[in-house]
Amino acid sequence: MSKRFKKLSENKLKNSDAIDKILSKVKSNCTTKFDESIDLSLQINNKQKKGEFNLRTVVNLPSGSGKKIKIAVVCEDSKQKDAKDAGADIVGGDDLIEKIKNGNINFEKLICTPSMMIKLSKLGKILGPKGLMPNPKLGTVNENIKKAISEAKLGQVELKNDKDGNVGLSIGKKSFSDEKIIKNFNAVMETLDREKSNNPLKKGDLIKSIFITSTMGISYKLKLTKNI
């Protein structure tokens, strides 16, 4: 354990508290030279009597994520100019699908139109394990390419649990104001609450525990003001 981390450990809290009370502690632990991310780590109750509850949705962070992501778009020739004008980093049709097939994956999010999804779906074994396969529920299979790109760039984050029910995501940067981070946090909580309400098989609380930390800091347990 480094001297820096040992010093941070002295700021550890024994009890959980609301995000507006803990955020100053989290930020004070950002002692590195770069703009650290503010991260959430949740564990959801995904074990149900009738099977597992798997969370997979997106949340639009109102304050943005503070991260720049490289976006690729697979679409028809007639929509490629719109995709480029909207800020896509890589745009193509059959040629881009062929590049992906050959292992040229130098992007972090892939968006496509419904008609191109038929061709792209054949690359499931390549894109699936990397979490890059477009999905209508996540807004990445979309006829409105401009809207899909805009939302992805503004701060759209995927919420997806692993087999143990763990979910991790960033809700901003140290440089964000507390107000902006709390707005993003509330958007995440509202999305989780909505997912629970929309699933008739989900019984009891969805969230078992939730922690907040910075990239190189220590974590603090959050107290929720509402059971979700």
Describe the structure.
Strand 5, helix 3 (77-85) and strand 6 form a beta-alpha-beta unit. A four-stranded antiparallel β-sheet has the order 9-1-10-11. The protein has a three-stranded parallel β-sheet with strand order 6-5-7, with helices on both faces. It has 228 residues and is of the alpha+beta class. It has helices at 3-9, 19-28, 77-85, 94-101, 114-120, 124-127, 145-154, 178-197, and strands at residues 37-44, 47-48, 51-52, 56-60, 71-74, 90-92, 109-112, 156-160, 166-173, 207-214, 220-221. The protein folds into two domains: 15-65 and 156-221, Ribosomal protein L1/L10, rRNA-binding domain (Ribulose 1,5 Bisphosphate Carboxylase/Oxygenase, 2-Layer Sandwich); 71-153, Rossmann fold (3-Layer(aba) Sandwich), CATH 3.40.50. The protein has eight helices and eleven strands.
Secondary-structure map:
Layout: H1 3-9, H2 19-28, E1 37-44, E2 47-48, E3 51-52, E4 56-60, E5 71-74, H3 77-85, E6 90-92, H4 94-101, E7 109-112, H5 114-120, H6 124-127, H7 145-154, E8 156-160, E9 166-173, H8 178-197, E10 207-214, E11 220-221
Parallel strand pairs: 5-6, 5-7
Antiparallel strand pairs: 1-9, 1-10, 2-3, 4-8, 10-11
Tell me briefly what this model is.
With 228 residues, the chain is of the alpha+beta class. The protein is 33% helix and 22% strand. The protein folds into 2 domains: 117 residues, 2-Layer Sandwich (Ribulose 1,5 Bisphosphate Carboxylase/Oxygenase), CATH 3.30.190; 83 residues, Rossmann fold (3-Layer(aba) Sandwich).
